[in-house]
Write a sequence for this structure.
């Protein structure tokens, strides 16, 4: 059985709000949020790691590319555990890369590099880690999307209103790039 904690973000969370406290989370029982067509599950974040890294999963159906965005101070890791995910990245010199990742494949996105991804197969899953001097961005998913109590994907994709995208950059180090285009 997984314990529940009250946190500044949620009335009930499986993640303790303070650092220095060991904890265990059963499969799928982290803090969940729906955003776009995906389910994000947070297992560790800023509160537990003193702002040094986060650990989360993202799972979803085959779908549309998520919007291009950049993290000024955060490095991000994409490790694929199921399905297939196409990762789009542009380096700081403007060169673009596109790679289809399948289970066991790893993608690294340095800070200041625009990137996006698209789930290419139904029930694809990414294990993500983000770290950097600017902290972590795991609470971004439920701020832009919506907290989810139940397991599973959203019944309908949750697409935020365009003006909501501009509300997250300072707090979560996520800046969307609505004019960005991928060459492929």
């Amino acid at each position: 059985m997984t314990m529940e904690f009250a946190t500044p973000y949620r009335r009930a969370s499986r993640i303790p709000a303070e650092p220095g406290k060991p904890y265990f989370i059963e499969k799928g029982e982290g803090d969940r949020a729906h955003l776009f067509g995906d389910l994000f599950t947070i297992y560790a974040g800023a509160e537990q790691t003193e702002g040094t890294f986060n650990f989360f999963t993202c799972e979803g159906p085959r779908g549309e590319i998520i919007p291009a965005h950049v993290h000024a101070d955060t490095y991000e890791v994409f490790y694929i555990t199921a399905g297939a995910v196409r990762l789009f990245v542009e380096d700081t010199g403007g060169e673009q890369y596109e790679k289809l990742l399948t289970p066991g494949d790893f993608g690294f996105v340095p800070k200041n590099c625009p990137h996006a991804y698209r789930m290419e197969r139904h029930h694809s899953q990414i294990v993500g880690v983000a770290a950097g001097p600017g902290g972590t961005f795991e609470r971004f998913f439920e701020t832009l999307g919506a907290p989810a109590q139940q397991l599973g994907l959203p019944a309908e994709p949750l697409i935020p209103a365009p003006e909501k995208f501009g509300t997250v950059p300072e707090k979560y180090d996520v800046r969307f790039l609505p004019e960005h285009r991928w060459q492929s």
